[in-house]
Amino acid sequence: MHGVNLDQLGRRDPTHYGGLTLTELELRIADDAAALDLSTRFFHSNHEGDFVEHLHGLDGLADGIVLNPGAWTHYAWAIRDALELTGLPAMEVHLSDIEAREEWRRVSVIREVCIGHVAGRGADGYRDALTRLREELAR
Ligand code: DQA
């Protein structure tokens, strides 16, 4: 699940976010998932309520979640609550190293309801997250 502004990848600062568009990133993630024997569904929204409602509807549709909520990560408590409500194992991913950037990006309100997080690994971070999720699902 991709959050706010991630549809603008390809136009955003490549030093933080790399050069892939969201479509290219999704193709890469789908390939990495297939290599791990996982199937993927993607969702993007720039609207917090739509993102929350998508989480509400995941019951029975997914075994786990990989999400990069973009800037919502840092303050959107409604997303944190909706994520917890899914009861699904979730991995938090950020393309950039949020710990090494501005102070406000160092806070993640979703981290406590995720089984792990990856940041600063670019597109490879999604593969790391899928690998970790797969381990969790095999337990
Ligand atoms: C991001 C980091 C956030 O701080 C930022 O607002 C984003 C993208 C990342 O992938 O590095 O939109 O989540």
Describe the structure.
The chain has 139 residues and is of the alpha/beta class. The protein has one domain (6-138): Rossmann fold (3-Layer(aba) Sandwich), CATH 3.40.50.9100. Helix content is 37%, strand content 13%. It has five helices and four strands. The chain has a four-stranded parallel β-sheet with strand order 1-2-3-4, with helices on one face. It is globular.
How do you describe this structure in short?
This protein is an alpha/beta fold and about 140 residues long.
Oligomer: single chain
Order of helices and strands, N to C? EHHHEHEEH
What is the approximate shape? globular
Number of helices: 5
Tell me the total number of β-strands: 4
Q: How many structural domains are formed by the residues?
A: 1
Low-confidence stretches: none
Over all CA atoms, what is the radius of gyration? 14 Å
Helix content: 25-40%
**Biggest sheet, open or closed, and with what strands and sense?**
4 strands, parallel
Classify the secondary structure makeup into a structural class.
alpha/beta
List the ions, cofactors and other small molecules found in this model.
Answer: 1,3,4-trihydroxy-5-OXO-cyclohexanecarboxylic acid
CATH fold name: Rossmann fold
Proportion of residues in β-strands: 5-15%
CATH class: Alpha Beta
Overall pLDDT score:
98
Distance between the termini: 23 Å
CATH superfamily grouping = Dehydroquinase, class II
CATH architecture: 3-Layer(aba) Sandwich
Topology of helices and strands:
Blueprint: E1 2-4, H1 14-17, H2 22-35, H3 48-56, E2 65-70, H4 77-86, E3 90-94, E4 116-119, H5 124-138
Helix pairs in contact: 3-4
Bound molecules: 1,3,4-trihydroxy-5-OXO-cyclohexanecarboxylic acid.
1,3,4-trihydroxy-5-OXO-cyclohexanecarboxylic acid binds next to β2.
